[in-house]
Amino acid sequence: MTYTKEQILSFLAEVSDPEIPVLSILDMGIVRDIIMADEMADIVITPTYSGCPAMDAIGFDIKMKLLEKGIQKVKITHVLHPAWTTDWMSESGKQKLKAYGIAPPQSSSARINRLLFDEVTGIECPRCHSVNTKLLSEFGSTACKALYQCNDCKEPFDYFKCH
Amino acid sequence: MNLKNLYHSFLLHLADSSLIIAQRNGECCAHGPILEQDIAITNITLDLLGQSRNFYQYAAQRLNEANGSSETEDTLAYHRGERDFKNFLLCELPNGDWAQTITRQFLFSCFQQLLFEKLSKSNDEHLAAIANKSLKEIQYHVKWSSEWVIRLGDGTEESHERMKKAIDYLWPYTGEMFMPATYDIINLEDLKSIWLNKVEAVLQEATLSVPANTFMHSGGKSGVHTEHLGFLLAEMQYLQRTYPGAEW
Ligand SMILES: [Zn+2]
Fold it and tell me: What backbone phi and psi angles, to 5 degrees, belong to A46?
C-alpha cells in the first residue's frame, strides 16, 4: 500500500516533541519535507538548535509512529539549511504552548535583542496575562527558552525565545 | 588518518575548538555561581557541542569519501590523540574562577561570530549551513558573555581585580586565533582589527583595558598544546578508550 504525503503528515501530527509534549513536531515546524519514493518514506527534519538532544529521539518516534501505521521503510534525513526559526511554529502550536504555561515566541525573529543589558519586554505571563514581566535569565530550562518572572503574580515562567 | 587534504584539517580545527571549550564549560555543570548562570553556561555548552557534532559529522563524511575510511563523529572526538587536536589553546585553558570562565567565552565567542559570518558565505553549502545555524546561537553567547565582562569589570573592587587577572592570563592566547595555519581558508588578518575593536569597546565599558604585553602563544592549531589538554582528553575520552565503541 502506498501513502500520500497528506496521510503521512496526518500521522506525523501524532508525534509529539519530547521536550514539550503538548506540541507535535508539525507545530514546532521541524518537519521540512516528506519524499515518497517506491515504498520508502523519507522524512526530512531540521534541528531547532545545533545541540538539540531531542533529534535522535524525534527520529526514533517518527519511525515508531509510521511503523504503527503500517509503514515499514522510513528514512530520516537531517537538514540544516535553511536554519530553523521560531517563525515556523504554527499559530495553534503557540496557543497550546501558552495553555501549557510557556510564553510563546513573539511573531518575528527580528525581536532578538542584541543590545547589551537590553531585554525583550512585554512578554505576557501565561498565568495571569500581565505584561508587567521581567527577564531573569536569557537561558532557561532548555536551549530554546529564557526564564522570566511576572511582577504581578510573582510566578517565574519559561519564555520560548525568538530564534 | 590521511590528512593530505588541508580542508579536512580545517574542518577538524573548527570541530575541535567548539568541542574543547564545550568540554571545559561543561565542568561548570552543577558548579555555577548561581542556578541561573549554571544553566546559562551549560546551555552554551550544549550549543557548542552541537556545533562540534555538525563539524565532526561533516569532516567524517568528507574523510570517508576521500580515503575510503570509516570515521564517525565519535572516532574523531574520542580516538584521536592530543597531537591530533587542532583547537585554539584558549579553548583548553582551565576554568579558573567565574571571571576567567566568562572572559574565555567572551574572547572566543566574539571571534567565532566574525569567523562564522565569513563561513556562512562559503561556496561549500554544507559548511555555510552549519555556520548560519551556529550564528543564531552565537549572538546569544556574545551578548551574555559581554554583559558578564561589564558586570564584573565595572562591579566591585574584588570583581574588577579578578577580571584584570583573567584578562592578563588569557590575553596572550588570543593572538593564535589570527595566526594563519596551513589549512586556514579565511583571511584572518581582516578579522583581527574588527575583533579588537569589538573586544576593546566592551572592555572599556567594563573599565578594563587590553594588556600592554603583546607576547602571544601559539601551537594549538598545529597540535602543540599546553599541559592542560592531555588531562582534559584523558577524562573526556576515558570511556571510549577503555571500551571502544561502547553505546548507551
Ligand atoms: Zn503573572
Answer: -130, 140
Looking at chain B, the whole-number percentage of residues with pLDDT higher than 90 is 94
Single pTM value for the model: 0.94
For residue A50, give the nearest of B36, B133, B147 by CB distance: B133
Determine the distance separating the centroid of ligand 1 and the alpha carbon of A63, expressed in angstroms. 40
Q: Name the residue with cell 531540521.
A: A46
Identify all chain B residues contacting A51, using CB atoms and an 8 Å cutoff: 46-51, 53
pLDDT of residue A122: 87
Name which of B43, B51, B147 is nearest A117 (Cβ-Cβ). Answer: B147
Residues from chain B contacting residue A140 (CB–CB below 8 Å): 39, 43
CA A9: distance to chain centroid? Answer: 16
Is the peptide bond prior to B180 cis by the omega test (within 30 degrees of 0)? no
CATH of the domain spanning B3-242, picked from 3.40.630.30, 1.10.10.10, 1.20.1260.10, 3.90.78.10: 1.20.1260.10
- Strands of the sheet containing A31-37, edge to edge, are A31-37, A40-45, A74-78
ipTM: 0.88
Domain chopping of chain B, boundaries:
3-242
Helices B98-119, B6-26: crossing angle, 10 deg rounding:
150
